[in-house]
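Why run this: before we spend reagent on co-expression, it is cheaper to look at a predicted model of the complex and decide which construct boundaries make sense. The entries below are exactly what would go into the expression plan.
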Amino acid sequence: MLTQTQIHTTSAGLPKMNSAHRSAPVRGSFGAMELMGSQMTFGPNEEIFGENEPADYAYKVTKGAVRTYKILSDGRRQIGGFYLPGDIFGLEIGEEHQFSAEAISHATVMVIRRSAVVALAERDCDAARELWTFTGRELHRVQEHMMLLVKSAQQRVACFLLEMSERLAATDALELPMSRQDIADYLGLTIETVSRTMTQLVSNRAIGLPSSRHIVLRNRGALRQLNS
Amino acid sequence: MLTQTQIHTTSAGLPKMNSAHRSAPVRGSFGAMELMGSQMTFGPNEEIFGENEPADYAYKVTKGAVRTYKILSDGRRQIGGFYLPGDIFGLEIGEEHQFSAEAISHATVMVIRRSAVVALAERDCDAARELWTFTGRELHRVQEHMMLLVKSAQQRVACFLLEMSERLAATDALELPMSRQDIADYLGLTIETVSRTMTQLVSNRAIGLPSSRHIVLRNRGALRQLNS
DNA sequence: CGGCGGCTTGATCGGTCTCAAGTACGGTGG
DNA sequence: CCACCGTACTTGAGACCGATCAAGCCGCCG
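The model came back. Tokens follow.
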């Protein structure tokens, strides 16, 4: 919910507010809706919204990283997705959020009223189509995530590293914004298994691990080969 | 692909062609698009389309049941979803199908040209909104499916039975259209584990199992309790 | 230097898979 | 009607992968 956090309304229409994105691809451009947002910042582990809360707002990451998650009955946490600069999250069909969302690191997000999005889509067919495209891409992402969860630990970790490399680095070196626990909860593994698998990949010469969050992909082919 | 299967074009606009649905809820009503389809029938295990084939058509089940799936590198099959009368499948954002689809039992489906759907959505904002809603519901379904895959075998099977009971029966007795292998591949388990878990549930008095495909939910509470 | 949180490593446990029989059921032919 | 067969399902015994429990390590910040 929109509590205990600073909020700055951007002077709408200044395009430089949107230029803080990384090199991320086109995903979620969202045309005219870009101009409707306010900026908010969240500290590490701060809640952005909770599961089952009214989904009155959608969000677009401008800086930092965000995770969505659910808590299972046995206390485990399943992470639904990681959202990096340029990514949109929290946009729902129904009235309530299906997952909770938290900032991972210090994060800045643009807030968009859901009612404004829906209203625009009712008038503008192009906007409605963008909405469909966005949700379709999210669907595709979740399908891939689902396919991950039936693979072996090695395959899951390898897949995860390849995905992150595509999303946050042009080079072979990447700095993960999330902890081992976050990775474990995303992959449906324990922190120990993730850690062990990483060290295996190091001894395989598939990756380098100069520090725990700093990873170098030494042999993308080997990583890919583990999967399909 | 649209090969080796009978195809009958319905005289468009005759509403009795659409009245074969079960008691299924509103899901995927699809307004005007209903009138654009032709009927096709598929025998058991017959392919409807393959992964990576052009997604020129979407489908709506009118009779029988359909599964979508992917084959993993190690030869296992992961089922993406089961589609029952009233359900729509194969509608993609991109140009290609993400999963393969097969009839489970003898099935009848209505075929809809994707181009017609997209064209309609470009003119009619309500249609575009329906498209968005449909994809959003599919997203929600896949999210739930993903959450299933990180639970214990008991929880997965219990969840599956509750889901099927909601989808294909008003009473406590249900007849599964799919085999144990299908269930296993949907839940990310082996056929043996599914079978064993079912017999456990029988000895728990949670279900009755008069025959392998005929299941009676004796204690929904117990099944629910296993999960959240 | 001490303490703390995040990460790694080790030893054991347990749930699910694997491999292998055994059983029930539906269909076919005599 | 029954005998036979093939397929789907169930059951059993053992192996294996990842979880659990428990130390140890490392980097950071006081």
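Residues 152-153, 189-190, 192-193, 196, 211-212 of chain B lie near DNA strand C (CB under 10 Å from a C1'). Chain B has two domains: 2-148, 153-226. Bring this page to Monday's planning discussion.
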